[in-house]
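ingest -> validate -> predict -> emit
validate: passed (alphabet ok, no gaps, 48 aa)
predict: started
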Amino acid sequence: MDVAIIQTSVPLTFSSRELGCFEDNPYPSPPNSAEAFYSGLPLGYSFR
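emit:
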């Protein structure tokens, strides 16, 4: 159980860091679209 929690926490932290990096970069995509796209990434990693 502890391992599962840690594995889920790791991808979440990485996604948060990537989100900040992307926000800093001048991307033409809106924040809403980026948020939805990144929201799906951690979910997929968590399930895998």
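The chain has a mean pLDDT of 52.
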